[in-house]
Amino acid sequence: MARILVFSTETISDPGIDFAGTSRLSYPPGVDVLSVPCSSGIHPDWILAALENGYDGVFIAADGEDCPFLPDCTARTAEVVNRAQDLLRERGLDPRRLRMAAICSVCGEAFVNHMRQFERILEELKGA
Fold first, then answer.
1. In Å, how far are 10, 12, 33, 88 from 51, measured between CA atoms?
2. Which DSSP letter does residue 24 get?
3. pLDDT tens-digit series, residues 81-102
4. Domain 4-127 belongs to what topology?
């Protein structure tokens, strides 16, 4: 079982993840969700710390175009991901251990699909 830390945004992706639960959609049990106000505020060091402290992967459930704080949230979050992947490479960690996708407030099924797919990728990386 892969351990995945999800950074989820309070106003956009949290409701989508909650919707997955209330719809009784099943996703991997190794998923832990941490709420943040805006995905662009995630610090790359947090991602690195999660991976160095037992998580197999980190998933950023980004606000996308629906961010209530910044019109360029998606671009800023993508820059966070790029910087974090550079840090991973510097530490000899596979950058595929970090993923990002926009998860909207009614995207419960999309979230579940992302988690299942990401878990498969992480399990393959562990076996390599």
1. 23, 25, 15, 9
2. T
3. 999 999 999 999 999 999 999 8
4. Rossmann fold (3.40.50)
